[in-house]
């Protein structure tokens, strides 16, 4: 099953897709949250191919474009982390009410800023388990660096490779206690990170270990970059993620 869906979050129209096996159901369901400046398909189809793999393994997968990205309404300059957190929680609530979603088996996954979002909403929505790929716990510094090294300032913010990042985004995230917000989640967690990640230092995994302790499983992929741009790295990410999700959904 492939279905296009829409979700209105406080006046912001999001567009997404659901993939699920063609027969049976309800299914254990995985939400995937994309990262900063990307969309639900992902670079080199990283997210789309993961969704297809999940369906092959008997899961449903929900993916939405955050507001101002992909097919959703709005402009990127309107995006803030606070708004994406609202949208992520609304996507979780919507997914939990759908007929295809098995009760008590709704999991969250995400890459980069999407992984960060998983860690920030988990203490609130309390999924039974979550998977984070290269979660951007250092996002204030990463986004700030991009404003200084790309195309320069605009009247509302900065030109970062043809997208306009707002000053509001930087000012808001600078004041957020991201590590403190992630505390309080006790479910099973899988964190996958590339050792040669050029955007999010691999050291963040140890900060997450301090937060989650023994409930977190860590997988480091040698030589892998932030986007896992190799067939072998991508396969490793998918294999570890699927194995973890199959175990927690039994």
Order of helices and strands: EEEHEHEHEHEEHHEHEH
Helicity level: 25-40%
User: At CATH's second level, what is the architecture?
Assistant: 3-Layer(aba) Sandwich
Unreliable residue runs: none
Morphology call: globular
Percent strand: 25-35%
Instruction: Report mean pLDDT, rounded to a whole number.
Output: 97
Task: Tell me the structural class.
Answer: alpha/beta
The CATH C-level class name: Alpha Beta
Largest sheet: 8 strands, mixed
Number of strands: 10
Strand order of the largest sheet: 1-2-4-3-5-6-9-10
CATH topology: Rossmann fold
Query: Total domains, how many?
Result: 1
How would you sum up this structure in a few lines?
It contains eight helices and ten strands.
Describe how the helices and strands are arranged.
Layout: E1 2-9, E2 12-19, E3 27-33, H1 46-56, E4 60-64, H2 81-96, E5 101-111, H3 113-125, E6 129-133, H4 139-149, E7 157-160, E8 163-166, H5 167-174, H6 178-182, E9 188-194, H7 204-212, E10 216-221, H8 231-248
Parallel strand pairs: 3-4, 3-5, 5-6, 6-9, 9-10
Antiparallel strand pairs: 1-2, 2-4, 7-8
Helix pairs in contact: 2-3
Question: Could you explain how this protein is built, in words?
Answer:
With 250 residues, this protein is an alpha/beta fold. It has one domain (2-137, 179-248): 3-Layer(aba) Sandwich (Rossmann fold). Helices cover 36% and strands 26% of the residues. The chain has 8 helices and 10 strands. It has helices at 46-56, 81-96, 113-125, 139-149, 167-174, 178-182, 204-212, 231-248; strands at 2-9, 12-19, 27-33, 60-64, 101-111, 129-133, 157-160, 163-166, 188-194, 216-221. It has an 8-stranded mixed sheet, with helices on both faces. Helix 1 (46-56) links the parallel strand 3 (27-33) and strand 4 (60-64). The longest helix has 18 residues, at 231-248. The chain starts with a strand and ends with a helix. The mean pLDDT is 97.
